[in-house]
Amino acid sequence: MGPEGRHAIVIGGGASGVLLAFQLLKTSPPNFRVTLIEKRSEIGRGLAYHAGNPEHLLNVRVSNMSALPDDPEHFWTWLCARPGGPQCPDPYCFVPRQTYGDYLAELIAPLKARDGAQGLTIIRDECIAIQENASGVTVALAEGAPLTGTLAVLATGHDAAASRLPRHADPWASPADAGIDSNATVLILGTGLSMVDYVLSLLRHGHQGRIVAMSRRGLLPRAHRRVEAMRLGEGEIPFGARIGVLLSWFRRRIAIHVAEGGDWRSAIDAVRPFTQRLWQELPPESRRRFLEHARAWWDVHRHRTAPEVEARIAEALSTGRLTVIPGKLVTVVPNTDRALVRYRRRGRSELSELEIGAIVDCTGIVRDPGASSNPAVRSLLDAGHARIDPLRIGIDVTPDCAIVDRLGSPSRRLYAIGPLTRAAFWEIIAVPDIRQQCAELAARIRNRDP
């Protein structure tokens, strides 16, 4: 280590960036500093935990949301220490997303108070380019002067898609801010967790018009139940098998458990500790088949809603406030203040029509990095410092999170964490997985040679 110490530049100040910065600095390593670059005004919230609708609940129970893998009760303890207490009876509950944003902000606050040479610096700006050289990295900013560091870590989280559809409303803004007519029909593309949140926002803002959600299969997220994971030995799992063999085994295992009086959720939760290894040992063609044919089914069973949210959506469905259509959007023809949507229902050849006042794209994140609008990601791809994985769901990284360049060589100074690394880890979008990834990468960075 040189006399000037080491400097890690973390690009992205959402949950992933905060968790990594905390792990890098929690032991107060000497002559080590971290700069966190985030263009939003608040640190730790990102798209997931911004201050918004208090009815938007976490889809993971409190007991699994500790920021620290070695202290599983950390979040619950923090909740209990708040004025008024945790507002729920035990750690098996689901709190507002904005509350978790508060938690992350408080987690990082003590690090900002340290000496700048051995602590955290936060820069409100946007990273527009990253360059690696023999001695370190240089990070260009949209407004400020370039930064130099020992290494850089991409922690940019989910890349929200920019819609070009007519009558489009921002899914991350409130319906009121988006200017949605409260009596108009609203079409939501996608039927996953983002759709669920937006329906709750519409209802909270008194929307009176029809709400229609559409996706290829029309599948809705299942809900959590108070169940424990069943026992599943590592030796039982057919690691390395083709996807057909693996899914047949899993269905049989679930059927046996349910026949014995168990809940399918227990089986899904039991396999969770092994999902990254299962993905990594799947043959490449099996990965492709999983994404094309089984991913939607996995998502609605694996990424579940809070029971309270399930009840709200069930009520909206039963009263006709919400309609779910399995189908595909074909055309959108705008007129003065509405638009005519033509779509094809699943299994049918003829087109159906729907007049709408707004379209909200809740199909989720940009899954193809080649379509990313993030300038930091684009700069690495354009310069050949990174490459897209063969399935085009993430950038290539090693098991140690090092970014792989165009020629297949892993970097010693460029890393990535969180959703960008889904090609290597698959299950890497939820806090329980990201916190472990951050702890392991931070330990490697602290212990490596300069």
Brief overview:
Helix content is 31%, strand content 19%.
Strands, helices and their partners?
Blueprint: E1 6-11, H1 15-25, E2 32-37, H2 74-81, H3 97-112, E3 120-123, E4 127-132, E5 137-141, E6 147-149, E7 151-154, E8 168-169, E9 186-189, H4 193-204, E10 211-215, H5 243-259, H6 264-271, H7 275-281, H8 284-302, H9 307-318, E11 322-334, E12 339-345, E13 352-356, E14 358-361, H10 375-383, E15 402-404, E16 410-416, H11 422-425, H12 431-447
Parallel strand pairs: 1-2, 1-7, 2-3, 7-16, 8-14, 9-10, 9-14, 10-11
Antiparallel strand pairs: 4-5, 5-6, 11-12, 12-13, 15-16
Helix pairs in contact: 1-3, 1-12
Structural features:
450 residues, alpha/beta, FAD/NAD(P)-binding domain, 3 domains, 7-stranded mixed beta sheet, 6-stranded mixed beta sheet, 16 strands
Provide an overview of this structure.
With 450 residues, the chain is of the alpha/beta class. The chain has 3 domains: 6-160 and 367-447, FAD/NAD(P)-binding domain, CATH 3.50.50.60; 168-222 and 305-361, FAD/NAD(P)-binding domain (3-Layer(bba) Sandwich); 234-302, no CATH class. 31% of the residues lie in helices and 19% in strands. It has helices at 15-25, 74-81, 97-112, 193-204, 243-259, 264-271, 275-281, 284-302, 307-318, 375-383, 422-425, 431-447, and strands spanning 6-11, 32-37, 120-123, 127-132, 137-141, 147-149, 151-154, 168-169, 186-189, 211-215, 322-334, 339-345, 352-356, 358-361, 402-404, 410-416. A 7-stranded mixed sheet has the order 8-14-9-10-11-12-13. Strands 3-2-1-7-16-15 form a 6-stranded mixed sheet, with helices on one face. Strands 4-5-6 form a 3-stranded antiparallel sheet. The radius of gyration is 23 Å and the shape is globular. The N and C termini lie close together (5 Å).
